[in-house]
Amino acid sequence: PQTRKYTLKLSQTQWAPDGFTRSTYLVNNQYPGPILQANKGDWFSITVENDLPVETSMHWHGMFQRGTSWFDGVPSVSQCSITPGSSLTYEFSTNEQTGTYWWHSHYNAQYMDGILGALIIHDPEDPNLKDYDYEYVVTLTDWYHQTTADLLALFLAPGYTGGNPVPDAGLISGKGQFNCDAKPGYPCKKDSDVAVYKVQKGKKYRFRIINTSGEAFYMFSIDGHKMKVIEVEGTYVQPFEVTQLPLHIAQRYSVIVEANQDAKDYWIRATMSKECIFNNGNTTINHDSAINYNVTGILSYEGSSNKSPDSTPFTDDLTPCRNLDSKLIKPLTASPPKEPTQTISYNVTFGTNAMGVAEALLNNSSYVPDKIPTTLRIINDHVDVKTMPTSQNIEAFNDDKGVAEITVYNNNSANHPFHLHGHIFWLIGDGVGTEIDKSVYNTVDPPVRDTTIVPAKGWTTIRFIIDNPGVWAFHCHIEWHLQIGMFAQIAELTDQLKLQKIPDSIQGFCANKAY
Ligand code: C2O
Ligand code: CU
Questions:
Q1: What is the interface pTM, i.e. ipTM, of the complex?
Q2: Which pTM does this prediction carry?
Q3: Rounded Cα–Cα distance for residues 388 and 204 (Å)
């Protein structure tokens, strides 16, 4: 094992990934940021240098952070944020995990301004190694022409009722095309770059596909090529073929694509679902007819002579806003979940607070971040989480090696991609309706993942093993929902957490702050 050292230098610049120039945050002068890679068992040592005019905090989406929960990167939960001009080194192990992850700022909605990238843990014992020759990372992102600071100012204004801001364009690996023709006089250029993936006929490619959006659900496909799914969010699965891949925010899949067609160019299609964007009353802040929902890239065979693809899409009609069918996903090594020893549920609703500002609530409580991170309160001050204010949305799980079961009930018409930090979970079941239908529970070989969709007017049940001391976020990954409080804290095995020693770097961060 080695220590994989990286520096992520955050800066602000003007950037035009879809032909429209806006203030963007870059990491190491690129967008998306660098792909962080390690082999299973390595440590990461990642220094985040904040040259932005605002604070930041970095999260490693999907990493367990066992024994290093303070490096999970959530302000108010794991650490104080990184002030402009300062830096913080995150150090964590990869020894339990392999596969496809990502990293992103967890400060406000900041990752949507550009602070994100892929995180890959290679596995020398990957059972699929012989089944592909090369690999690519594909990030799918929605893109706005205003900064999130500007959008949040509108979205959080008292009396605003327009729903989530709607993206202007979508990007494949940071490249997209705004529909300039549909908006005469708008300051955009038509010839922005297209994402091109080169292949050689006869070779096989592993594509690691990550939805890094803030609002959009994506349907992904490559004309003329089937995709063999081999990994779901870090868990190997029994391979199965699909022609279209649905991904809500923060979901990831590895697929193998065989370059076995005529040696020409084919469209790669990433379509943002309008249904998912508009089904919850999202209307205006910036919605206009020029939005390009159909983002394209190119799969280009070596020696191809057709410079623009004439390929046709697959026509399956998959339900938008829903997970890839759980019945297809069978972990390669099934570990059947045990019966829960602690069960809780969250009820998702929307409302407005006393000032008329939109809020999202879990069990009638909208999360309000505190100045002091919960992790520090527990380790430094031995605070009992039961005494914390309701607005902390905190729940204790103290049954060592027990099984937690969480059901999320959602009575509104949006679909919420919920993510649990610090864990993978069994997706026991989900469905539409106000009551759980236990007949659809899979307690034999359910999918294992870290992000799953709670369907509109429906419910989702997950289970996980209580074995990772820390305070873990559990939240909707639609950034607008998270910003208005659709967020809970899981305080896990706090008696063990209290005994852990926080690195001076993390302590020092808060010491600098007035609270
Ligand atoms: Cu992708 Cu709370 O994280
Ligand atoms: Cu949501």
A1: 0.98
A2: 0.97
A3: 53
